[in-house]
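Appendix B, example 12.
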Amino acid sequence: MADGVKKDEEFSGTRPVEERHRVDERSLARWMAEHIEGYAGPLTVLQFKGGQSNPTYRLNTPTRSYVMRRKPFGKLLPSAHAVDREFRIISALREQGFPTAHAYALCTDEDVIGAAFYVMSMEEGRVFWDPKLPSLPAEVRPKIFRSKIQSLAKLHLYDPEKIGLGDFGRPGNYFARQVDRWTRQYRASETQYIPEVEKLIEWLPRTLPEQKRVSIVHGDYRLDNMIFHPVEPRVCAVLDWELSTIGDPMADLTYLLMQWIMPGLQGADLAALNIPNMEEAADIYCDYTGTALPDLNWYFSYNMFRLVGITQGIAARIRDGTAASAKAIESAKRTEPLAKASWIYAQKAGAV
């Protein structure tokens, strides 16, 4: 368990800004003085350790700390790194009382620091990277899981129209759009030929499940994308809304449930850890939302295919020199194993 605690410490916190991620701090400070009420310098800029997508910074002042998310510098894939969408959705959800950071201001003028960005509140609390939660007492672990799962269920119960997000995603079958999107993203960043990906690109669009509900979808709902209260076992803020849209809530739920079949909880002694198993986790969600769980094999195949698109994009950014984390190389190496695992679940779902 010491390794898990070490992992929490390794990815948490800040470091000096890497040379390739430096921004014009004077220009940023001028912009903050003009656009953020109550801002008072001087400004100190640090970079968060975690994350491989939109570079994220801690902005310290004598009286308050902020967080800045910006697009990566350089050439980007179409529709990727949409910080303006992140800003919009956390603003809307915060108004509903959903646990997100407070969004202060959005800047689309790339002349300020070289890329679009937004500034939000710095939410103090705990971030856990190891789902076995080795740093916590056994009696607290199920409460962390329940809060995480119920927060997702709460998100899925909002009516997008009623909270001003009716146009946040396109109409039609969400999985059809997503399979098409990640196919295009994969093709745009392809660096190698993977036979399983070619079979998945042919099979997934032919076997789409019926979409029974429409909700806000986070798109990357996992433990390390949320901040927990400093002492209480509850979610204070859900982070990283880059992939959020309007779609099928089963995408988020089945992505969350994949934690039990991938490194992290796969093979763990859940009873000894006092952590819910996959069925118990699904029951928490289904009881809260009043929904039933579908057969999971197609969804697991899809979710792994989507991760193939993401890790392939990271591989392309490494090649192009725009990847935002030293951990990116590790993620890029997962592309082929994920593709093979995705095809195994596709076969369980009937693919031949």
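The beta strands are 14-15, 44-48, 56-60, 65-70, 103-107, 117-121, 215-217, 226-228, 235-238, 245-247. Residues 13-121 form a domain with the Phosphorylase Kinase; domain 1 fold (CATH 3.30.200.20).
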